[in-house]
Every structure is written in structure tokens, then in C-alpha cells.
Amino acid sequence: MKTWLHSWRAAVRIARRDAWRAKGRSSLVLAMIALPILGVSAADLTIRSSELSVSEQLERSIGTADAVFRDPDFGGVPILQSPDGDNVYPADVKDGAAWPSGSTDLTKVIPAGARWITDTQGAAKLTTVHGLLQTDVREMKADDPIARGITTLVDGHYPRKADEVIATSAFLEQSGLSIGSTVSARNFDRPYRIVGSYELPDSLKSAQITALPGAFLAPYGKAVEKAGSLAPGTSVSYLVQHAGGFTWNSVKEINTKGVTVVSRTVRLDPPADSEVPLYQRDDWGDFESSAGADALLLATLATVVGLAMLEICLLAGPAFAVGARRSRRQLGLVGANGGSRSHIRAIVLSGGLVIGVAAAVVGTVLAVVLTLALQPFLEEFMGQRFGSFDVRPLELLGIALLAVLTGLLAAIVPAVTASRQTVLASLTGRRGVRSTSKVLPVLGLVALLVGAAIALYGSVITDQFIIVAGGSALAELGVVAMTPAIVGLFGRAGRWLPLSPRLALRDAVRNRGRTAPAVAAVLAAVAGTVAVATYTSSSDAQYRAEYSASLPHGAVSFFQMEDGGRDVPAVADAVQRYLSVDTRADVSRVAVGKPGCPAWGGDAGCGLYEVMVPPANVCPMWVPTTDGSDPSEKFTPEQRRTLLREDWRCKQGDGGGSVYVDGGLLVGDARLLKVLGITDPAAEQALADGRAVAFSKPLLAKDGTVGIKQITDTKAADEASADNKPAPGKVSSIPAHLVTGDQKTYGLQLLMTPATAKAAGLTTVPLGAYFSTDSLPGTEQRQKLDAELAKIGAGVDLTIEEGYVSDDSIFLLALTVFAGLVTIGAAGIATGLAQADAEADLKTLAAVGAPPRVRRTLSGFQCGVVAAMGVVLGSLAGLLPAMGLRLTEERQQLRFHEQTIAEGWGGDLTPPYVPIVVPWETLAALLVAVPLGAALLAALVTRSKGAVARRAAT
């Protein structure tokens, strides 16, 4: 044991001295190993620091309160909740029954002697320098000790008067306002002065203002209602301090009164699942990740880490090999003085150990320093403050050990190679006859064949991505193992090449110990790039084929659903002013209740409508049943397929686009038909005659009318729906014309004029507009329009149909650049090592009168040869996994498509299109531009002349 320790101690000292002497080579290897360690360690520090403890989460959500009380709006009936309060269910609701609704007076539930403050939240459109900004509004006594920790005051002071507010830094930045400015809301003329700025530690990017309780939201709601709009909804929480806190039993007792409680005591010491009544319900499901998903994630991370380590080892291995070769006389002296092969291996391995330890220390220290220095920027990027700077030594030590392991693995092959040299060969500098291993290529071929078979099985027989990925990874490792033999095959092409490329290729083949790892490193990087590029290009081609246009090419539309469409005219005028509009078609929607009601009801005094489908026109598989059973179960899979393909009642048209109102019903005129490109003179005449125009056959009754049901009692409608009965309401029958043929309607199902709607007793409000344009808007036009819409402050859903736009071009370019950098780096390393290794040959060339340019061209061709071999092999290896994954996706999508039809779910009957597209542009850049660029770069940075010296006697 003592002898072993002393021998390794001496080996480490020798390796440290050699590393210090060869500073350039050592720095290069150290940087290759340290950079990944730096990135992973910094990511670990950032993630751990951003993960908040339960105590920190409570401080940011409830301040110093012992609990927060909330009303779940179940009308005060007993409830069941999870310990964290995120899941709340009525306690006594039967399956399928409607849930109760209503508010509860929380003050009656707060224990006597407790101290509390309210936290009320709502929203409003506030005036800014640029126009109007949708902003969260909070009412809370923010300087109360109970609220300490919820907000962090940055500048100024907390509100002291009813007309004072504080604003988040994000709001001030977005609005252009500052401390001292006044702010007001739309439909609300009362000004408020901003007296301070603050931030929400958990949401740095939130635009929010905070006022004193009762100072803003209540008067603002009254002003909005007076203006004819609906008052915005608010939610009130009570932050409660009570001696002794609230135990889980206290929480359950308060739950019986219909109130949700988030208790500090319960969160810090949660009860067992068996003590939580909610978790004992039969319909409760645990949606946490499964053990299989966690195992798959770990396997994926292990694979990524393993491939990254392999890449680094392949790049760093030749550097250790050349270091060992330059130290061969020193190693020979060790052998001549009684050193064994194990001592030689220990010295070379110690080089990897020294570099690995140095890289681990440098990477870890830099990660800590950079994370601390960049903490404000990281917090801004993530949108939340760190809880604390959390350094976990064991995790950092594990990451650092990866650097040490990588250094040792990279030095293994050079260590074994150096130990096999005889003492005489090491002392005299002779290279001897070098033979490549015959076992490694065979193992590589076996791995390639087995991996390809596994990938083929996964893509053709099964539909498991993990099988395809595992087989592809094994096949790629097989190609890496075969690299020395493949490099030897490339050498046969040297007989047809001129002097410099022939010398470069001969040198690469003769010195496969440094050529093969560099080629393998290029191969691995290029294979990954080609695989991802092929998969991305194939997916992009599929998305292009599946793309469904929202409008005719160049057309524009917008919808404005809030406030009864009061901003529609202003928005339409802005669009017409800044875009080259040819035809404008204003559209409205049917409204039930007050003018400011939302399109789908839900608020007091607001209803909804329903476009009726006559019972005779309902697909037999979709007929509602009184018992809630699935009507499609009465049919066999073959009968369902037949119904979907042949019964017009079950066919669903794919008109593309979307109309954000029930039933695709719009109120407009014939100009809308023109904008949408619908050519039907009979439809235009029908609109002129006061009839509706239907684009879906099932909507039309036998008497040629369509029915619109107005539902004013939404509560009764919910109860009827729970009982599988039709909702009560008044039905208006309107004569209609059916448009036949294959017309693309872009989501429009029913169209009628305002006069027709009024005659049918339907109330309408503005919804938006459609526009046809002479040309697509440019960037300047879009910017001006966006600025104008920001001033109007309306919540607008604007669509400009530009056709399918691929987002992958930049991604593919980035992949190509990445692969090119790795290729040039690996080839450059191999070239530098080759020059150092072949310095004697270069001196001989100069001595016999070779032109100076030979040295430069030889260097360029050495770099180009390595790059070309790696790129060619990597391009071929990268196609396998991409093709396997696409074939697997095709099987999955075909299976889902068949299941959709067999189950009678409807949808598109066309089989999915899953192409495999080879990214020829990326391959051309890799196969031609990258090797050529590597060769030119190496030639440019190489000196033409070297010192002529006398060759040493051999």
C-alpha cells in the first residue's frame, strides 16, 4: 500500500510538472473539461437558489400571517381541501351533479381575538404615457406587519392616503410613468398619485399597483357600471394572525363552514395522506409524475452526460497522446531505472488526473463567482428573486468528480499505448511499427449492426421512442469504435492526390491514435446535428402540409370580446388607416343580457345563446342520452367508420380558421363573403332578402330554417346539463340558405345581417372586422399599428394571414454553426498535434528544398482531411436516429388516427402525413463549407517557414 502511494505521488508530481511546461496544451484541455463543469455547476446553483423553502414561499404569499382565508365560492357548503389549499372540492356533491355556487362571509369564520387584514385583487385598464395598459390592482395595507415579505419597497413610501398608490417597477417601465406621476383608469376619472415603487419577489415582471383597502376597486367598479360595462371581478383574501396558529384539525373545522385555509403550521408540518379527507375520495387522482417517467428522465440525463463526456474524451485524448509522445524519453528513463509498465501508465494517467482536478476546481470556482456576480440578471431573467444563495457541496462535488473522471478517461488510451513501448524505442525516439487493434473494429461493427436492428425494431414493430434512441446511440458508438479502421480505408484514396493532400492523408492514416479520436469527435457532433436537423426539417414539412390558414392569404381580422365591443370602431379605423385595405367587413355577435356581457355568459344578468342542431340532423353517435352514457357504444368500430365516412350528419368540415363565438355565428353582410373568398350569388341574394346563410348542412331544419336559442337563466341551464337535458330558453327560427360545394369558410358556420338578427329578436354588439388587403403589411406598418392599438388599450386578437411561416431556419443555422465550430475545433486540435508530432518530417521537407507553401498547405490539408472524414461519417450516422424517430411517430399518429375513427370521435378522415425530409442545405454546408473552411483557417494560421535543423541520429 505504501509503495503504491509513493509511486502515484511521484507520478502526480511528474504529471504536474509536465502540465506546467506545456501550458498551451494543458490550458486547451483544461478549458474543454472546465467549460461544461462551469455550465452545469452554475445551472445547479441557479436552480437550487431559485427553489424556495416552504417558509420562504409562505413569506412571499401570506407575509407573517398564520393563515390566509379564502372563499371558494361554493355558497358556504362544507368543503374538502388539500393541505396546501390548491385543491378544493364540495364535500357532499354527487357524481355528475352541478356544483354549488355563492359567496361566504369570511369575517364570521375568523376566530375571536385574531388580527387580520384584507388582500383584495382585481384588474383595470390604467392610463399610461403610451395609452392604456391592462394592470393588476391590489388593495392591501402593504406596510402592515402582517404583510411584511409580500412586497419589497424599492423607492418612495407606502400609500398613506386614499388617493395614493405604489406601483411595481415592471409597471413603471411598461407605462413610462415614474414616482410622482398620476394614474387613472378608463371610465374612472379619479386620479391617483404614485408615491413609491415596489416589487413582488415571486413575480418581478408583473405590472401591478397597490392602493389602500377600499380606495380603488369599489369606486372603479361603480364607475364602470355607470358607463354601461360590467364591473371587473375581484377576489378577497384575509391574512389572519392568531395565537397558536391553525392546526390541521382547525383547518378541517373551518372547511365545514365553506372556507379554504392555507395555514403556516400545516404547510410547515403537513399531515399524512391518510388524515386528509380529500385524498380518500374515490374520484381523487394523484397527478404527480410516475416512477417510469422519472426513470426515463434520469436515463435521458445520463445519456446526455455520457455523450458529452465521450465528446470531451475524444477531443482531449489526442492531447494526452502527444504529451506522452513528447515525454517518451522521460518515460523511457523511468523504465530504464526499473519502472514497470504500471508506473508508465500511472504517469500518463496522472496527467489526466491533474488536468481533471484543475478543471474541476476552476469550473466550480468560476461557477460560484459568476452566479453571484450575475445573480441580479438571472433573477430578472427568471422573473423571481432567489430565496438564498444555496450552495450544496455534495452536488458540486459530484459535478466536479465528473471532470476528474473525464480527465482520467481521456488519458486511458494514451497511457496504455505509452506503457506498451519498449525502453529502447522510447530512449531512441523510434516510432516502430504500429498496428491497429483488430478487436475494436469488430466490436464496433457488431454494435453498429445490433444498434441498427434495435432502432429498426423500435421504429417498425413498436412505437417506443426510447428503443429507437437507445438503438441509435448504440449504433453511433459502434461507428465511433470502427473509426480507426474506417480512417485506414480512407488512406487508399491517397494515390490519386497531389503531394500535400497525399502527405496529409498518409500522416492521418499512420497516426490513427490521434486522428481517430478527432474524427470520432467530429462524427459525434455532426451526427447529432444531422439527426436533429433531419427531424426538424421533417417535422417542419409535416407542419407545412397540415397548416390550415385562418384567412385567405393577405387578409386581416380582429376580434374584441370585452366591454361589449366598445373599441371595435376605433380598432377597425386604425387597421384601415395603417394597412393597405381593399375591403372592410364589420361583424357583430349575438349578446344575451346586458350589452357589456361576455360572449359566454357567466356574470350576473348575462346569458348566452346556442345555435341549434335539429334532432334529426344529429349524428347517431353523438345523440345525447338521458343517462349520460356514450351513444357511440351502440355501434361497432366498423359501423362508426362507415358513419364518419358516409353519413353527412357525422362529417365535420375542415374550413380552417376560427370564429370565437358559439356556433360560428357572425352578424354581417355580403362584404364578409367577399373578404373570405366565398363566391355564391345565391348567398348574397339570401342576405339581401333577409335570410341567414348557413355553411353547415346539419344546422338547417327540414323547413329551411336555422334555430337560435337564447338562454337567460344560466343556472337552470347548468342544472339541465347536469341532468343531460336541453337547456331552457327561447328559440328563434330564421329562414336560411345553405351554401353547397367545397367552400372554405375559415370557421364561419352561419351568417346573417343586422336587420335579420333584429327581426328575429336577437340583440347584437360589435365584435370585430375582416379586411382584404392589396399587400402584406411591412414591419414599419405593423409597428405603427401595434403602437396605435396600445394607445386604444383594447384586448384585441389580431390575425394577419401570411401563410405558413417556419421558425426552424434560425435553429438549423445555429445547429450548423455549432457543428462547424466543433468540427473546426477538433480538426484544429488534431492538426496542431500532427504538426507537433511531425516536426521532424517538416524539417526534412525544408532541408530537401520543399517550397515554403508546402508547410502551410500540408497543415491546411491535415485539418481538412480530419474534418472531411468526420463530417462524412457523421452525416451518414445522423440519418439513422432521425429516420427511426419519424417512423415511430408515423406509427403512433396512424394508430391514433385509426382509434379516432373507430371510436367515432370525428375529425379529419385523411391519414396523417409524416414525411422524412433530408436537410440538404445543412448537409451541403457541413460536407463542403465546414471542411473547406477548416482547411483554409488552418492554412492561414500556419507559418510558412520553420527553423531548419539537423535531424537527430537514429
Detailed description of the structure:
The protein is 50% helix and 14% strand. The protein contains 29 helices and 22 strands. Strands 1, 4, 5, 6, 7, 8, 9, 10, 11 and 12 form a ten-stranded mixed sheet that branches. Strand 2 (79-81) and strand 3 (88-90) form a beta hairpin. Helix 8 (291-326) packs antiparallel against helix 18 (512-546), helix 15 packs antiparallel against helix 18 and helix 15 (465-481) runs antiparallel to helix 28. The longest helix has 52 residues, at 852-903.
Secondary structure layout plus pairing:
Elements: H1 2-21, H2 23-50, H3 54-62, E1 67-70, E2 79-81, E3 88-90, E4 115-127, E5 132-139, E6 152-156, E7 164-168, H4 169-175, E8 182-185, E9 188-199, E10 208-211, H5 217-226, E11 235-241, H6 248-255, E12 260-263, H7 264-268, H8 291-326, H9 328-336, H10 341-373, H11 375-382, H12 393-420, H13 423-428, H14 439-460, H15 465-481, H16 483-490, H17 499-510, H18 512-546, E13 556-559, H19 568-578, E14 581-591, E15 608-611, H20 637-646, E16 665-667, H21 670-675, H22 681-688, E17 692-694, E18 705-711, H23 714-722, E19 730-738, E20 750-752, H24 754-759, E21 763-773, H25 779-792, E22 797-800, H26 809-837, H27 839-847, H28 852-903, H29 920-941
